[in-house]
Every structure is written in structure tokens, then in C-alpha cells.
Amino acid sequence: MIEVIGLTKRYGGKTAVDDLSFTVRPGHVTGFLGPNGAGKTTTLRVILGLDAPTAGAVTVDGVPFRTHRRGLHHVGALLDAQQVHGGRSAQAHLAALARSNGIGRRRVGEVLAEVGLADAGHRRIGGFSLGMKQRLGIAAALLGDPPVLMFDEPINGMDPEGVRWVRHLFRSLAAQGRTVFLSSHLMTEMEHTADHLVVIGQGRLIAAEPLRAFADRGTRQRVTVRTPQPAVLAAALTAAGASVDTAPDHLAVRGLSAEQIGALAFANAVELHELATHTTSLEEAFMEITAGHADHLAGSR
Ligand SMILES: Nc1ncnc2c1ncn2[C@@H]1O[C@H](COP(=O)(O)OP(=O)(O)OP(=O)(O)O)[C@@H](O)[C@H]1O
Fold first, then answer.
1. Shared-domain flag, residues 250 and 197
2. Are residues 203 and 229 in the same domain?
3. Quick check: CB of 266 below 6 Å from ligand 1?
4. Do 151 and 38 fall within a single domain?
5. Which of 95, 133, 139, 188 is the most exposed place for a label (fewest CB within 10 A)?
6. Is the CB–ligand 1 distance for residue 39 below 6 Å?
7. Are 18 and 56 in contact (CB under 8 A)?
């Protein structure tokens, strides 16, 4: 479990994270979402003890990460897949990490196989694609078999097969009872991966809830109707409690289902030419809920 309590991080006059509190529980994949510059990487760095908080506290399983002597056995993290020594082989890189964390050499082969790099273990990392580097970073995070895992934008650079693989991996790690925390600025990446969300904007908390609850809060249904008698139908729909926007060639209706609208049209002898239901996507809900929280609007802070 990761607990972030009243976390604030300032860099000079810039507030990157502002009084942020949330909990990431084991057994779930939790997505950490926010527009560019929202403060996700900063938060992950503070959780890992790479940056000191200006105020507030962060604990991993009840204690600050810095005081965990078990290192990779306790938290596995991938912050920047590009930050690896390109001259080494994948095997040598993982072996060095294993050695400095008291992890047996056998584990290196196991994690390379787990991330699909068994055949590339002897190759220089410098020749790896970004997707392969992401896999290597995930292998490093898994090395100590830790109960808590954190990944910063892990899907960046992965091909569709890689994306499917990584989603399955994260879900199975969570199903084993681990805490899995993933950051992304794209809701589409989280939609099929995470079951919980922590959403931030301009360093502040916007939502911390199950993905379904977030979706239900943001997504809405709208029904478009084409009819040669828009005024008659609009009056009947409004009288039935719907909100109706009149466009030149259709009515956009909220608050009633297509079935209810069809029945009302029938009862009022209104001819219909089209009746179509549109559901806002989760991505649109995310854009709507985070609107106004993008970093470029934060100039005066
Ligand atoms: N070392 C630093 N010095 C000064 N400002 C910083 C530093 N690190 C981050 N910031 C600023 O803090 C804010 C939050 O940055 P952060 O990288 O945490 O956001 P993010 O949500 O991870 O964004 P992205 O999705 O673009 O990676 C940004 O405005 C960034 O410019």
C-alpha cells in the first residue's frame, strides 16, 4: 500500500505538487492520470525517496521508502526506460542490479523470460527500441519480486502486441495481491488496464476512485433526433423533463432514453427520421473533468 498524505513539492517558485493526498491499495491496478506537467513524475520520485517533499509525507506499507532496507525486494519501479547504460547487455545490467541488491543471479534469466527478452539478453541495450527498453525496465522492477510496483508511462513506445502483453502482466501482478501503480497522461491507456484511478491536475487531486465511478460521473448519454416537426417534438420532450438543444438539422436530447423519445414522438404523432444514442467516451469524460487543469494554464502560480 502507498499512502500520500498532504504532499507538497516546490521547485523554487514552482509548485509541482500541491497538498496531495491519496492511497494506492494492493490487489488493484491503479492508474495515475493527469495532463502533461500535472505532477505525476514528481509524486513518483517523492514516493521513491529520490526527491524530498517540501511538506507532507509518503509511506510505502506504513514506512517512508527511504527507511526500507529491503530496496528492490520491497518496491520495484520504472521511471525512465531511456536512463540505462547503452553499452551494457540487458543481462549484465540486470546482473549488476541483482548483485547490489543481494538477489541471486538465477533471477536475471527468470525476469528476462517474463518480459519476453530471453533471446535479447546478451544484446547491447544501446540497440534496443524504446519498447524493448520499457520491457527491460519492467524486468528490473520485477527483479526483487516486490509487493509494490510503480511505473511511469510504461506503455510509451510499445507496439500493440507489447501493449496487450503489458496490460495482462499488470493485471496478473495485481491479482497476485501486489500494489500496482501506473502513470499516464492518456485515459485510453488506462481504460483497459486500471481498475482504480488517481487523477491530478496542476499538482492537485481531482479524483481518487474506481474507474467505473469516474466513468459514471463523467460519461453521459445524448440522443440525437431528426424529425420534420422539431418544434412539436421539442415541446413534448421539454414537458417530459428532457433538456433539448435545437440544431439546424436535428435535436440533441439529454435526460431521456431513445425508447422514451420514440414513445413520446409516437404519442404526439410526430414523424421520426432518425433516433441515435451517443455515449461520451471515458477519454472525453477525462478531458472534461481535467479541463482547466492543464499546466500551461497555470502560469500565474
Ligand atoms: N527538477 C525540477 N525543477 C523545476 N521544475 C520542475 C522539476 N521537476 C518538475 N518540475 C515542474 O513541475 C511540474 C510537474 O512536473 P512532472 O514532471 O511531475 O509532471 P508530469 O505529470 O509527470 O508530466 P508529464 O506527463 O509531462 O511527464 C511541471 O511544471 C515541471 O515543469
1. no
2. no
3. no
4. yes
5. 188
6. yes
7. no
Supply the mean pLDDT for the chain: 90
159 lies in the same domain as 41:
yes
- Ligand 1 binding pocket mutation candidate from 8, 10, 14 (most atoms within 8 A of CB): 14
Q: Where are the beta strands (DSSP E) in the chain?
A: 2-11, 14-24, 29-33, 55-60, 75-78, 148-152, 179-184, 196-201, 204-210, 221-226, 243-246, 251-254, 274-279
Residue 292 belongs to some domain of the structure: no
Kindly state whether residues 63 and 184 are assigned to the same domain.
yes
Residue 70 shares a structural domain with residue 172: yes
* pLDDT tens-digit series, residues 181-233: 999 888 888 888 999 999 999 999 999 999 888 877 766 788 999 999 999 99
Q: Both ends of the chain: CA-CA distance in Å?
A: 32
Q: Determine the pLDDT at residue 298.
A: 40
Q: Which of 42, 185, 200, 293 to mutate to test the pocket of ligand 1 (most atoms within 8 A of CB)?
A: 42
Q: Is the ipTM of this complex over 0.85?
A: yes
C-alpha cell at 174: 495485481
In the block, cell 487531486 appears at 205
CB distance 9 to ligand 1 below 6 Å: no
Ligand 1 atom closest to residue 200's alpha carbon, by position in its atom list: 21
Q: Are 207 and 201 in contact (CB under 8 A)?
A: no
Query: What predicted TM-score, i.e. pTM, was given to this entire model?
Result: 0.81
User: Which pLDDT does position 175 carry in this prediction?
Assistant: 97
CA-nearest residue, atom 14 of ligand 1: 39
Residue 37 has pLDDT above 60, yes or no: yes
Tell how far the Cα of 10 is from the centroid of ligand 1, in angstroms.
10
Domain boundaries, position 260: 221-279
Number of structural domains the chain divides into: 2
Residue 89 lies in a domain: yes
